[in-house]
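User: Hey, quick favor. My workstation is busy. Could you predict this chain's structure for me?
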Amino acid sequence: MIETLRAEYPHSVHSRTDRNSNLRFNCVMYALDAHNDPALINLSLRCPDEVHPSTAFAQFLIDTGSLVECSVANRAPLVTYLKDNKIEHIGRLIAGARVVSKWGVGHLYEHDLMEVPSSYGDTLRYFRLHGDTPIAELFRKFAEANGVEF
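Assistant: No problem, here it is.
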């Protein structure tokens, strides 16, 4: 569908998904480079469906200081997309205004900053991880804060 749109609406969105890609992850897992982390995956499988590495987890990381806001000039590796002041999407900045992000249950895409579905919002904030605590441990804290007992 992305390629069909290109004929009518020129864009620079390109799929980064290959035939052997495992797409069982979301934008947050990809942006935090946790989509292949066995510890995080194991923890998330032990949680109820509503507690997973979601945009609520990303907000938890911001609220607890594990994700700190910075500017693109300071080489921010992550960009969040907000709608009505709520994080809807997150991606990895790769070069200039280019981003790689996972769209819903679909593919992994490379795109310009504002070449995302409008449902993700149009307010951008930039972040980097602070500290060296493993993502799985941060997720454990998020899950526990949401009533999960391990």
